[in-house]
Amino acid sequence: MRLITLALAALLLLIQYPLWLGKGGWLRVKDLEQQVEAAHDKNEELRGRNAKLDSEVRDLKDGTGAVEERARYELSMIKQNEIYVQILRKGQAAGDGVTPALPASEKPEKPARR
C-alpha cells in the first residue's frame, strides 16, 4: 500500500511540473502577460508623443502662426512695417551689442506690433 501511495505522489508531482514550471506554465504565462502590459503602456505613451509631433508638423505645414512665432522668438525677426522695441535691463548699455543670457524660465519679450 505504501508503494502505491508513493507512486501516485510521484505521478502527481510529474503532472504538476509542466503546469507550473513548464514552457506554457502559469508562471511563464503570468510573466508574459506582464511584459505585454508594459509594452501596451509604452505604446500608449508613444502614441501620445506621435500625436503631438504630428500636430506640430501639420501646424508648420499648413499654418503660418507657428513659423511666425519661431521666427520672432528664436531669430528675433520682425514683420515689414513693424517697429521693434527693446527693453534694456539695469546696467545694460544700449549700444554694447551684448545680450545677456536669459534663464530658461524667462522668455524674451515679443516685439511690439504697430
TrEMBL record:
Residues 22-114 are periplasmic. It is found in: Cell inner membrane. GO terms for cellular component: cell division site; cell septum; plasma membrane. One of its GO terms (biological process) is FtsZ-dependent cytokinesis. Residues 94-114 are annotated as: Disordered. Residues 29-63 form a coiled coil. It is a single-pass type II membrane protein. Its main location: membrane. The keyword Cell cycle applies. Pfam families: DivIC. Keywords: Cell cycle, Cell division, Cell inner membrane, Cell membrane, Coiled coil, Membrane, Transmembrane, Transmembrane helix. Residues 1-3 are cytoplasmic. The keyword Oxidoreductase does not apply. Essential cell division protein. May link together the upstream cell division proteins, which are predominantly cytoplasmic, with the downstream cell division proteins, which are predominantly periplasmic. Part of a complex composed of FtsB, FtsL and FtsQ. NCBIfam families: PRK00888.1. HAMAP family: FtsB (MF_00599). Belongs to the FtsB family. PANTHER family: CELL DIVISION PROTEIN FTSB. This is Cell division protein FtsB. It comes from Pseudoduganella lurida. The gene is ftsB.
